[in-house]
Amino acid sequence: MSTPLFEYLLRLGDDRLILGHRNAEWCGHGPILEEDIAVANIALDQTGEAQLLLNLAGQVEGQGRDADQLAYWRDETQFRNLQMLELPRGDFGFTMVRQFLFSAHAHFVLEHLAKCPHDDLAGIAAKALKENRYHLRHSSEWVVRLGDGTEESHRRIQAALEELWPWTVELFFEDAVDAALKAEGIAPNQADIKPKWEAMTAEVLTRATVEPPKGPMRMVGGRKGRHTEHLGHLLAEMQIVARSHPGASW
């Protein structure tokens, strides 16, 4: 039976693994050479953070699984990432809006975790917080640049926000896992983070001359292993080499 800490580490690690994979899809396809490198570096940061978090999850689980086994040998329903992060990469504006919305939330989560009483997790969070500051700055600058740019770039940023905003409700999902870790002083209180995130996103979106939609929010399920049809396709691509050659090493 999994423990709350194991489940929580999976959530943190899977978020970064899946978003890192989506960002890595831009390698060789960026709109300009500088951005091709920049987004690939963000993907590398996120994959590295995922490796640290999933390795720690394996240690907490105590069943001999490491980051590679957790990444490549779990099926779709065993992943705990936010549904927003598994959506197809879309255009460059969509990628920057998604990265901004996620990094803004991650900033406050990592700030808390970097000071938590679990030394290993705090160390990983402190490293990730430094990297996330760059991700947040880079994505927010592009959201503003494109949103307050040409008529076409503005239209695309607004369209990306219309598509992504309903999924952001899952950022603040909490259940018994969070309750148990909040009691230990590890997990942050999402009710405290939400107004900070709202203030940060509102400031950037105002400068970008776009605004979030007023429509209904999406159902949440990623934290419980319920995903969109897109995750299965992503995992098939990500896991094919490991599953085609089990036990192989290079």
Describe this structure in words.
The protein is mainly alpha-helical and 250 residues long. The chain has a single domain (4-244), classed as Ferritin, core subunit, four-helix bundle (Ferritin), CATH 1.20.1260. It contains 9 helices and no strands. The chain has helices at 4-24, 33-61, 67-72, 92-113, 119-147, 151-164, 176-183, 190-207, 229-244. Helix 4 crosses helix 6 (151-164). The longest helix has 29 residues, at 33-61.
Q: What distance separates the N and C termini?
A: 33 Å
Average per-residue pLDDT, rounded, comes to 96
CATH class: Mainly Alpha
Quickly count the domains.
1
Question: What share of residues are in beta strands?
Answer: under 5%
> How many DSSP E strands?
0
So what's the overall shape? globular
Helix fraction by DSSP (H/I, runs of at least 4) = 55-70%
- Written as H for each helix and E for each strand, in order along the chain, the element string is HHHHHHHHH
Count of helices?
9
CATH architecture: Up-down Bundle
Largest sheet: none
